[in-house]
Structures are given as C-alpha cells and as structure tokens.
Amino acid sequence: MADLFLKNSYKSFLNNIRLLGYLFFFISTILNAQEKNQLKSTSTLQEIEEIPVTVFIDNVGKFDLNVLYTTNELVYIPIENLFRPINIACQPMSSNDVLEGFIAMESNRYKVDDTNKQITIGSKIHTVEKDLIKETGVLYLESSRFNEIFGIELSFNFRSLSIKLKANFELPIVKQARIEKMQSNISKVKGDVKVADTIIDRNFHLLKSGTLDWNVASYQNWKGQTNNMIGLGIGAELLYGEATISANYNDQYRFNNRQLNYLWRWIDNDKKFIKQAQLGKISVQSISSLNAPLIGATVRNTPTTIRKATGSYTISEITEPDWKVELYINNVLVDFTTADAAGNFRFKVPIVYGYTTLKLKYYGPMGEERVEERVTNVPYTVMPVKEFEYGVSAGVLQDSTHRKYGKGEFYYGLSRKITVGGGLEYLSGLTEDNVIPFAKATFQPFSKLTLNAEYAHGVRSRGLINYYLSRDILLELDYSNYVEGQTATLFNASEELKAKLSIPYKYHQLNGYLKLDYAQLKYASFDFNYGYVMLSANYKQLNANTSAQLNWINHQNPFMTNDFILSYRLKNNIILRPSAKYNMSDKTLISYKAEIEKSSYLGHFTLSYEKNYLANNYFINLSFKYDLPFARVSTVTTHSKGSFTTSESAQGSFAFGGGNQYIHSGNNSSLGKGGLLLYPFLDINNNGKLDKGEKLVKLSTVNISGGKAIFSEKDSIIRIPDLNAFTNYTLTLSDTDLENISWRFKHHTYQVLIDPNQFKRIDIPIKVVGEVSGLVSRTYQNTSHGIARILVKFYEANSDKLIAETLSESDGYMYYLGLKPGNYRACIDAEQLKNLELTANPTCHFFTIRTLQEGDIVDDVNFVLFDRKKEQPI
Q1: Cα-flanking dihedrals φ and ψ of residue 648, to 5°?
Q2: More exposed terminus of the chain, fewer Cβ within 10 Å: N or C?
Q3: Which of 532, 529, 531 lies closest to 521, judged by CA?
C-alpha cells in the first residue's frame, strides 16, 4: 500500500507539474500576444527585441542603455532611463503612466502622458499615438521623435550598437562637466597659460553700450506700512574703460547722492607705469576708519593677472546652508567648496604676488547659479625679487564733513623671502596729525610660515603670524597695539589679541573641520575675552554642525551658548534641517527651529517654524524662490505672535548688442561683465574674413572655460554672455562638431580678452578641404593586386613643399581628407620605392582641389608598382 501510495503521489505530482507548465505556457502566450498586439497597434510591427547600446556624448563620456529594436529598424528609447544619466529632471507620476520634468530651463516643463498618448512641452502638445509605448511598466519613445519634441538628436548605429547624443541646448550633464572643468582650472593661479593658436586682444571704444541691471522689492506689514524699493544700473564702455552707474530708491527715505553709485575703471596690463585706474566711488584698504563712501581716483601699476608666490592662508566666512561657494583671485577662479549645515565654509588661499583682490561667489542649492559677490581684504602683499609696485588714491568723503583723504603706498621685493612696503595716509579733520606715515614688511622664511609686521605712526603697531603646523592645520596669531588717544580709527581698546586654530579632518567618508578661536580686547578698566569652538562634520547625505560661544570679562565666569544644526538631504531634493540654541550657563533652551527645503523645477521652497523662549514668540516662515530665464523672483511670508508680514522681490539684467537685434536677458548682474558673439562661416576664398556671399555655419558645441554658450534657432550666431571683463578666456573648437567632414576650423583655440559691458564679435573662419583617393597596386606575372603600407606624399604642384602624406590600406586603397583648394601632385615615397626595388607608374599624379562649399573629391589617383628590372606595367 505504501509503495502504491508513493507511486500514485509521484504520478500526481508529475501531472501537476505538467499542468502548471501548460498553464504557464498558455499565460505567456497570451501575454506575448498582448504585447505584440500593443506594439503592432502603435507601429504595425511584428517583432521586437531588447538590445543593449552605448550612448556617447561628446566631451562628456558614455553610458549603457537597453532599447527596443523592431523588425523594420525602428528604435524605441526608454525616456526615464535616458534622461536620468544626463541629469534631465524626470519624475514618474500615477503608476508610471505620466512622466514630468523640465528641459533646458526650469520654466520649460514637459509632461509625457501615456494614457492620452500626448507629450506636452511648454505650450506645445505633440501627439505620439504610434510612437509612445509602454513595456513592463517603462515608457518608450521612438528615437526620431526626441529631436522634434525635446531637441535631443539620437543617431543610432546598428553595426556598433551605439547612439550618438546631441542636443540643441546645454545638457545638465554637459553643464556639470563645464563647471567642473572651470573649477578645476586651479593651474591658472600657478601662472600656467594654455597655448592658443589665435590671440584676440581688447577692442577700445570711446563710447559703447551696454548692459542694464534692475531690481524691485516690496515689504508689507499687515498692521503697518508698506515699503517699496527699486534699483537700476547701467554699464557701458567710456573713454576706453568700463563705466557703471546705479541708483537705489527707497520710498521711506528721501533720495540723495549716497544712493547713487558710479565708477569708471581702466585696465591695460601691457602698460608699464599705469596698469589700472579708477574714478568715482572707490574702495581702499585704509588705516583710518572711513564711515562714508569715498569719491575720488586711484592709479596703480599692479597687473590684474595672477602671479603665484609661495605659501597660503585661510579665510572663514558664513553664507546660507548647503550653498556652493567659489573663490576668485583677480577674477580668476582658484577654488570652490560647499557650506555646511550652519553656512560655514573655509578656503585655503594661495599667496600671490602684488596687490590682490578676493571675490566670493555664492550659488544656491538647486544649481541655479544664484550668485552674490563679496570682496574681501588680503592680509599680505608679497613681491617678486627687485620688483616695485605702487598705488595712489585720493578723494573726498561723501558725508556732511567732506573730509579729504589720500594714500600713497609702495611695495618692493627686497629678496625672495622679504617684501617691504610703506607710504603715507592723509585724512583731514583728525584731532592729532592728519598725516599717518606707515611701514610694512612680510617675511617668509619657508612656505609654511608667513610673518607680517605693520607700523602706522600715531595709530597702531600690528604683527601677524600664519603658520601651518602640518599640510592643512593652520595656526594664526594676530596682535595689535593702539596708541592711547588715537582718533584715526574707531577702535577703543588699547590692545587686541586674536588666535585661531583650524584643523580639517577626513576619515573614509567622514570629513569636516574643527575651528578654535580666541580673542582678547584690553581696555583701561577691564579685559573682554571671547572664545569660539566649532565642529563641522559631513557623512554622505548627513551634515552636522555644533558650536559654542563663550565671552567673559576679566576672571568672571563665562557666559556660554551652544548651537546645534543638523541637515539631511533626501533623494528627492528635500532637505530637513532641525536646529537648537542652548544657554549653557543657565542650562535653559533659548530657541529651536525646524526647517524643510524642497528643490524642484517649480522652484525652491522653504518652510520653517521657530520658537524663541527669550522673546516668548514664535515665527512661521514660508518662502518661495524661482529663477526665470530673465529674472529671479521670490516671495516670503512670515507669521509671528500678533504680526503678519509678506515681501516680494524680483531682479534681472539685460545685455544689448547681441547681434541680429538680440537682447540677452538674465537673472544675474550684467554690470562689469562682457560677452562674445561667434560668427562661424565658410571661408570660401580662404582669406579669414567674412565676405559677402559666404554663409554662416550652425554649431552645436563650443567649449569655453568659465562660460556658457547659447545656440539660437533663428540664426547661426553663438552668444556667450556673463564673462568677466578684462579677463582672458580660452575658446576651443573641434572639427568633429562640424556637420560636414570636409569642413575644418582654421583656428581651433582662441585666447580672448573680454571687453567691458558689451558683446565682442569674433569671426570664426571654417575652411573647406578636399579629399583624394585611389588604389596602389602591385603587378606580378601579368596580374595586379592591392599592396598595403605604401607611403603616398602630397606636394604643391610646382614646388617640393610637402603638404601631407598617407599610407595605403591592406587592399591597396589610399585616402586622404584635408587638402585646401589648390593644385597638387601625389607621389609614391621615393625612398620606400628604392628600398623595395620598385618603380611607380605614373611617377606622380597631378590634380586640382576645386573651391566647393561641400568640398571637392578626386578619386582617380591610382599607382601601379612593378619590379623595375623584371616587370613592366600592365
């Protein structure tokens, strides 16, 4: 019985297996039929196949992608899987039936709707009834529709199973590569200059406009008054220099000349005695305290180029949390970083020769290039050996006293390690002597140690030590002693001592830095002390910052507070940021805050709630910021106990003279900037000039360090705005970007000096070259066959000037592309014929490359080789 039971059970098991197999086969057949019917209904195809392909993007790289290939050679591309590697926003909605995002700019939104078989982009609706299919939950679009709908050209090659991707806009991944390339341009600081085959210097004009900045803002207190502000700035080239004028009006105050800013700036680094000059509201690094704008003039023989010295120092600043910050020295990018959860960041700044200006640029968390600029002072001036620099400034303070100010200073490289300097500063109206003689000295015994001493007669003596204990651990000591009763500065303490220790660290994926600061101010009756300890840490998406502030008088117990901020970035661009402030002395909570940020193509949202126990109040804040192509707009709403306020703001800029009546609009300042207008054209007569009848050529790619090219659909002019004036930029062009293989750029690398407040036109000649081909064969026993690796040389028809050369292939085929129009002769290399004991018939071919827009083709340059002793040509 047991055997029979086992036997029947075994048969039953086999029958069940067979039944499951039949059922599985039946279901699979139905599903496959449904899939084929679905595809057939959309594209009348019978079979599809999923194949892997490699997608190539010029100057960026490649990535792998699985696509659907049909029997009638159509290719269907998975939209989301294509967009995500190139960083195009793509968000699935409602069970993957809808994809949403934006193309090129945040305002250009798109929506892929499988239910209605429509793709909406901007205000246009495209019907994709037969081109959009859904397979295994993934939306596929026929490859040719990407160019029509999204401006993305996909060229499929079945033989190599590859796709070449090009776009008529700057892809996000291309933009990222551009920024990374720009930010990696640290070599400029070391004085490394990329060799260019064409150098374009300044164009000087007596008057040429122009750029324009604008901003408006309004603030409303619902229980009080409304405050409105408006600003306008104009930029131009005037008397061969940069001229800017701006005004800001607030309806709560009477307009006066302090709300008006104007500056004329002239720079020419090729001059010997005066390289820089400024006129208008100038800024100076003064010893005296200037409590009003200074209207005057400045001249210097200091160039604006970067000249790397030895050593470095550190600057620490605060901005918004998670913002990216770039450091510029004399308008050249030298470093970049990201602020932590509390907005703290630091830079290790290289010491460069000469009078130096530092500029910081801040970018918002969405990568939307929300830029603010801040200029900071440099504590050191270092000069090369036996080099002399001077600066002279003079002006009048813009206040009721109209006090006169003047300063003359010089710096000289006494040796490789010592720089000395000094001068006179004058400020009328001082109770003591109006003239302040001063002297400075900088000593660098080795690169890790910098000593700076300064003496201002009747004002102060100062010493500064900058010492790197290791490669990155920096100790700074700063001591100042002020003369009792001095009135040049507003500083009331007799002595000031500062000590700073900065310690960065990194362990696997954990990194951050520790900062210790101490300051002491000595007054006649007491000493004020201040201490600060800050620890910042980053681990993957988590960022934490904690700091403690201490201050005390003499030997009293210190008053201590502590801040703690935590930031965590989720995958969907949401940032959670809780924070708290604690009174360590009283052991009480001062305040706490919870903040959430969301970044998307719709804009940047921030919602926060703060409870302040000291003020017995709460604050609810909702802000929205959005970058339009032509403006940056924001709105903020704040509610607290018994108060409700709102504010709105917008700012933007225009750059005129963009060619073909084009006006460039942007959301960043255009004052003090310049731009390029590139006119690529077919140089038919090869004279390097755009002549009548020579047509412009459309390009899709231009590489420029620190700039972004704009390609227009209306014309072939390439516009590159928002470039820093008086700065050299390197423009690189590649022949592979031309649509015709017979076209070549006459120059591939341009070094361009930007003119201020204007677009600068550059004609880009493209020469048309011809191709020549033929067969090199070898006779043997009255038969002929191709011969490989025979060297064919091309000369000018009536001279021995070698133009080019090429080798025959395995079947004897010879080909060369790149001859400009003219007369040539092609000859087999005589030395090779001699070594092979062969003779060529004919000895040389004479031919002509004609001047044609598409390039000329000569295809009958044939050679027959035979043994000069035993054979004759056939």
Answers
A1: -135, 145
A2: N
A3: 529
Say yes or no to pLDDT of 565 above 60. yes
Distance between CA 152 and CA 370 in Å, rounded?
27
Q: Which tokens sit at 48?
A: 């599809």
Please tell me the distance from the alpha carbon of residue 133 to that of residue 114, in angstroms, as a whole number: 8
Encode 588-613: b = buried (16+ Cβ within 10 Å), e = exposed: eebbbbebebbbbbebbbbebebbbe
Would you state the torsion angle of the CA atoms of residues 285, 291, 295, 298, taken in this order, to the nearest 10 degrees? Answer: -10
In tens, the pLDDT along 507-553 reads 888 888 899 999 999 998 899 999 999 998 988 888 899 999 999 99
Cα gap 105→378, rounded to integer Å? 38
Given a cut of 60, whether residue 295 has pLDDT beyond it is: yes
Counted residue by residue, the chain has a size of 874
Beta carbons of 660 and 717 less than 8 angstroms apart: yes
Q: pLDDT, tens digit, for every residue of 15-47?
A: 444 444 444 444 444 444 444 444 444 444 447
CB atoms within 10 A of CB 633: 17
CA distances to 38, 40, 292, 430, 489 from 289, in Å: 79, 81, 9, 11, 5
Number of other residues whose CB lies within 10 A of the CB of residue 739:
9
Entry pTM: 0.67
Q: Beta strand 743-745 with 759-768: parallel, antiparallel or unpaired?
A: antiparallel
The residue with tokens 């607290």 is: 640
For residue 761, list its beta bridge partners.
677
Residue 735 phi/psi, 5-degree rounding, is -65, -25
For residue 56 the two structure tokens come to: 């190539």
End-to-end alpha carbon distance in the chain: 96
DSSP 590: E
